[in-house]
Design brief:
Blueprint (H helix, E strand, L loop, with lengths): L2 H24 L5 H21 L7 H18 L6 H29 L2 H27 L4 H21 L4
Helix pairs in contact: 1-2, 1-6, 2-3, 2-4, 2-6, 3-4, 4-5, 4-6, 5-6
């Protein structure tokens, strides 16, 4: 990854992580909203570790378990949600957490150029791009949550960019 991308992605993940931590520190427990903030507060440092130390196995299995668990929480939450935007948001957060699991699992294989890993990674990039676009459109349509939805969109776009930069061309 080039130096310019490293700087840009560092800024993206530092900003989204700090925003999640700020939200956690200024609010009381608010159910799934708090889980969203915890997710961002954990996801951002994990992305920074992948960015700066790509071959580090820094708690890889523990991270995969945490992000898988968070995805399950978001999927479980679907049954209690009433509106399409709420359900789409829960699915988007589940997808982002599963994207983290994929990135952690696939990184060593991507370095060796295994074709199936490359194809699945580009599929994940596409889903993350669609999710980022959904968050940004939602931010534009939801005046009271523009910063929050923009943060989610920025995080998804950063993940998509980083995975695209890590993945060999098809």
């Amino acid at each position: 990854m080039t130096g310019a991308w490293t700087i840009v992605l560092t800024a993206v993940f530092a900003a989204t992580g700090l925003y999640g931590v700020w939200r956690l520190s200024t609010r009381r427990w608010q159910g799934i909203e708090t889980v969203v903030d915890v997710s961002h507060a954990l996801m951002s440092p994990a992305m920074l570790v992948m960015l700066w130390w790509p071959m580090a196995a820094t708690g890889q299995w523990a991270q995969m378990a945490v992000f898988s668990g968070l995805a399950v929480v978001f999927f479980y939450q679907l049954s209690g949600l009433d509106t399409v935007p709420e359900r789409a948001g829960a699915m988007a957060h589940a997808g982002m957490n599963l994207g983290m699991v994929w990135m952690l699992a696939a990184m060593p294989r991507l370095m060796s150029g295994e074709p199936w890993t490359t194809m699945l990674s580009w599929s994940a990039v596409g889903l993350l791009v669609i999710t980022a676009a959904w968050w940004l459109v939602h931010a534009a349509r939801t005046p009271g949550h523009r910063t929050l939805c923009g943060c989610h969109g920025l995080s998804c776009a950063g993940m998509a960019t980083m995975l695209a930069l890590m993945t060999p061309a098809l």
